[in-house]
Amino acid sequence: MERFTTTVTESARLYGDTHIVWLERTEVLANIQPGEFLMTYIGEGFDPLLGRALSIHRLREGRDGPEFALLFDVVGRGTDWLARRTEGDDVAFVGPLGQGFEVRPRVQRMLLVGGGIGCAPLIWLADELVAEGREVTLILGGRGEAQIFPPELLPPAVEVIVTTEDGSVGERGRVTAPFERLLSWCDQAFSCGPDPMFEALHDVTRRTGSSKPVQGLLEGRMACGFGVCYSCAVFPKRGGVRLVCTDGPRFELRDLYS
Fold this sequence. Notes:
Radius of gyration: 18 Å
CATH topology of the largest domain: Rossmann fold
Distance between the termini: 32 Å
Order of helices and strands: EEEEEHEEHEEEHEHEEEEH
């Protein structure tokens, strides 16, 4: 974990209220893994004072070297400031932080479930899994079409299933329906989204009697990102206190809800 500053190479609204910012990938991020995150320091000076925890969304080879992306919804002053950065602007970070996804080495069929902006780290995971020759199905869910990541931006080998609560695109309903259909097919499942989604996914595994491992990447609010402030504490059903920033953000859902 280090504090570093790097430079924006591209910035655009990608869909709905969701923005993407590409930045130069410094040596600090040479060994990052899908699911890890950065504390992103936004605004001028110390306003706002606290950083924002943002998952690393994707990697690419840019014009002048390797780059990484952040994908985020514009919902307040901080994310609005970040969305208004342009090529050549600098942004400060602390990271990489957290425990990323843990992929089993000898399994083939992978099921990914993203709720809303929870798709952000799953896109990079899908890129990596496809490059390794694994089968990948990605379920994207949102309230409506404006919350759905464009499937055409994914590798062609990824099977995409879209659900929307209003039925504006894809299946009408929530991600739990296709998740239940595909749970017996997959070898391992990964998810990211709001807390109620995780609990609903776990309810499906419990109701169906499935023992398939399902990892969830939690989206806890954080003030520091490295275990000092305890603002991201969670309380698993099995007892104790866990911190999203240091113990997670990746957790096995059965450890949280069983």
